[in-house]
Write a structure and sequence with these properties.
The protein is mostly helical. It has five helices and four strands. Strand 3 and strand 4 form a beta hairpin. It binds a DNA duplex through helix 2, helix 3, strand 2 and helix 4.
Length: 127
Amino acid sequence: MTEISMRDRIAAAIRKVPRGHVSTYGAIARAAGYPGAARQVAQTLHSSVGLPWHRILGAGGEIKLRGDSAMEQRLRLEFEGVKFRGRKVNMRLHEFNFPRARKTETSKTGRRSGPAKPRAARRKPRR
DNA sequence: CGAGTGACCCTCA
DNA sequence: TTGAGGGCCACTC
């Protein structure tokens, strides 16, 4: 059952991000159960309302927005106590870790410890 | 039903 | 560190 739409699930993950913390599209997508669906996270933020969209940043903690939206997001985050490091956010201090997300904890290299799911379709036509 | 788009991510050089 | 390329997935026209 649980015919939950992907957006609802993503929205739920976004709502789990507490104030003063931030997350990335990829992290939200993974926490929602859709690894690689980072783009859908962005669309969900656009379609859904009432979500802390300003707490969602791009990879590396950089704001991928443009124009006034980017400025607003930055202001909102700073207002919540998020520190910015130049144009990027200091994820090291505010990157939220999802409770359900079991990413095998990155050791130290920060890389994913092997593809839990053999993405066979990840073939590269070498050109 | 097909093609294009998008508040993106990851990997390699 | 920065830059470029390829891939993923849902929604819209």
